[in-house]
Amino acid sequence: MQKKQLWAILLLVFALAACTGGKKAGSSLYEKSSKTPEEISKIFNKFDRLKSQLVGHFSNRQQLLEENSAEPPQEFVVVPIFQYDRPGEFWVYLELFSPDMKESPLDQRIEQYVQIDRDSFRQEVYYLKEPEKYINAWKKSKFPKLDIRKDLIKNPACDLTIIHQEHKKGSFKTLMPDEVTCEMLTSTTAARYVDLMYETTDEGYTMWFTFYDKNKQKLKATEGPGLSFLRLNPGDEGYIKVGKN
Questions:
Q1: Which CATH fold would you assign to the domain 29-231?
Q2: Which residues does UniProt assign to the signal peptide (predicted)?
Q3: How confident is the model over 107-121, as a mean pLDDT?
């Protein structure tokens, strides 16, 4: 092989590496882990599809515009936190915030998803002992060091069961718990307990909340079709290009 041909091949290899690997290596957890609805729709393993539906950047802006709702604008980001999960497990970090106050999140938590069988899964909720250490961690290329035993507080009363909906292929929904048990450990209002139900699709989440006081008396519940949080994709209004917003 002539030297010119060899150099041409080497240059092509380096160029391809820069195109395929350079952006990914320098991007944030947020950008690396998100998939579009079209990409997610091609995943046929149910747990893998659920995991992809859970992860990304979600906003209720579309529902607020369409319904002239009194609900406040809110967004949340969900990213995987461990590069290698044990089989049948998936760990994520969730951060909820107002669009104009991303550096002051309304909620932060760790969630673990465990496969029960082919069609059902369990969501487990953990609180961070020092949440301030993880604010906007989704903007980083690697999640800060986290020790499951030392850095987290498990709240087993808030575990949820998630099932695949056979009548609505490619979607998943939580089951309503038998009792009111999920205490909001960080609540500063009269609401002390909450029941959460949600549905996930390739496009996003639909959520229903029921809040209770310290005596487990109902205070407020989401009405109608629920709260819609749609996935934001690159190019959508509100999508965060890390380093430019």
A1: Lipocalin (2.40.128)
A2: 1-25
A3: 94
